[in-house]
Amino acid sequence: MDALLLIAYFASVVLFLVACHRLAIRLFHSQWEQWGGVLLPAACFTIPVAGTSLLLMDPYVTARSFSTPLSIFAVASCLDRSWKSTVLWTILVISLHPLMGLFLTCFLLVLGLIEIRREAVAVRVCGAAFLLCGLIALATRFIPIAPAYREVVKTHGYLFLSSWHWYEVGGTCYSCGFDGHYRLSM
């Protein structure tokens, strides 16, 4: 099982780099720029984003390990206006990770509208999405939160800006210790 997980992890990393290269080809003309578009994500894909536990790629195999590169393939296909392959990649992402598939579908909708020169419609779709999110937040604002959930959330201090140290506010990089606490990387 360990060997299989290691092979799956390496496969997901290679797939991520290939997807980044395919997207970089669509975005940049120079070969140096294209390789820069691959090397930058390669250098940063396991660095947590400032004060959070969000990573481009997890350092272990998860559903996101494969849904992330497949999402990048879908974006590259959308930029090529290859709608059939965009739909195929999106279906694969949804089958692996439904939440990431939802995010991808929303992004592709806006990107597709921009690609076919429907910017005004894209702005209206984004406005409607923000309005929907606001309505959901208002509707669920007074739902009681379970005490057990509050205890679990307290163990993740990086979720609350008020609990960050002064050096964390600037967006420094962190590494997670075995006890689950984040420390400043030197």
Features:
about 5% strand, mainly alpha, 8 helices, 2 domains, about 65% helix, about 190 residues, single chain
3D architecture notes:
The chain is mainly alpha-helical. The chain has 2 domains: 1-121, no CATH class; 145-186, no CATH class. Helices cover 66% and strands 3% of the residues. It has a two-stranded antiparallel sheet. Helix 4 (83-96) packs antiparallel against helix 5 and helix 5 (98-115) runs antiparallel to helix 6. The radius of gyration is 19 Å and the shape is globular.
Structure at a glance:
With 186 residues, the protein is mostly helical. 66% of the residues lie in helices and 3% in strands.
Strands of the biggest beta sheet: in what spatial order?
1-2
Q: What's the helix count?
A: 8
Radius of gyration: 19 Å
Overall pLDDT level:
84
User: Which stretches of 5+ consecutive residues score pLDDT under 50?
Assistant: 172-186
Order of helices and strands: HHHHHHHHEE
Helix content: 55-70%
> How many discrete structural domains?
2
Relative strand content: under 5%
Shape type? globular
User: What does the largest sheet look like?
Assistant: 2 strands, antiparallel
Please identify the structural class as seen in this structure: mainly alpha
What is the tally of beta strands? 2
Head-to-tail CA distance between termini? 34 Å
